[in-house]
Write a structure and sequence with these properties.
DUF1684 domain-containing protein, single chain, mainly beta, 2 domains, six-stranded antiparallel β-sheet, 2 helices
Length: 273
């Protein structure tokens, strides 16, 4: 799904001046786009492949890549590669089942992200990709305090998971701490909350999806609740999923039925250009 997001500036409350509200949003926005355009971030993705049990060469990647059981095999054929602090030039076998998404193998200035979904997905990242080179920002709605809504996190009694479809063919089980309840225009709504990289977030669609915003949904980070579960949902900070920028992220989660909101959230990021 998403990588760990950039540190966010505090969400401002009702007593914040319009100038401070806008300044805080602009600061967050600048940090987000800086993160988005990092040399080996989402915009650097140039290809993706699902591995099988046949050793293969893939366009733009050195060596041979394949899967056997729940292990990935990489034969660099002499090309230096690195996973963390370990460098290797001969065949290596890694078992990444249960590991975090998007573990990276470095190949010179490029990287290959590895994700396990029963089958291994590899995504090639090149800092000189056309998408990163030509990026000129993401269109957004103008920020408005009306889209900062109070909510309450209802935690489950014990650790729980939810299985979600993806934009590709796979499903995946995600950790969920509970549900967040909020009200808009006098009507109560509920969103399933996910836990990723130690952060809380939700993915949702609304009446703008497929019209002015990405059709498969958008993502919103949720700040840590207070002792009573109270949170502020700042929909001005809604962002696109990586699959909105590229076809090379077929594992983006689709929102559960609970998270398909019937009204238009005219806040946050619009469909990328």
């Amino acid at each position: 799904m998403s990588d760990a997001h950039v540190p966010t500036s505090p969400i401002t409350g009702d007593d914040t001046s319009p100038q401070e509200f806008t300044r805080s949003w602009q600061q967050w926005r600048a940090g987000w786009e800086q993160w988005l355009t990092q040399p080996l971030g989402w915009l650097a993705a140039t290809s993706h492949e699902w591995l099988d049990d046949t050793p293969r060469h893939y366009p733009g990647l050195p060596g041979r890549w394949w899967q056997h059981g729940d292990a990935i095999h990489i034969d660099p054929e002499g090309t230096p590669m690195a996973l963390g602090e370990e460098t290797f030039t001969a065949e290596r076998r890694f078992t990444l089942a249960g590991a975090p998404d998007d573990l990276r193998v470095a190949v010179g200035e490029r990287e290959v992200g590895i994700t396990y979904r029963g089958t291994y997905l590899i995504v090639a990242y090149d800092p000189n990709s056309p998408a990163r080179r030509d990026f000129d920002g993401v269109p957004v709605y103008e920020p408005s305090p009306r889209w900062v809504l109070p909510g309450r996190l209802e935690r489950y009694d014990s650790p729980t998971s939810v299985t979600l479809d993806s934009v590709g063919w796979s499903t995946h089980t995600h950790e969920t701490p509970g549900l967040v309840h909020f009200e808009y225009a006098g009507t109560k709504h509920t969103l399933q909350v996910l836990s990723s990289h130690g952060m809380l977030l939700t993915v949702f669609t609304d009446a703008t999806s497929g019209v002015t915003t990405y059709g498969a949904g958008r993502s919103l980070d949720i700040p840590s609740p207070d002792s009573e579960g109270n949170v502020m949902l700042d929909f001005n900070r809604t962002v696109n999923l990586p699959c909105a920028f590229s076809e090379h992220f077929p594992i983006c989660p689709l929102p559960p039925s609970t998270n398909r909101l019937p009204f238009a959230i005219e806040a946050g990021e619009k469909t990328p250009r």
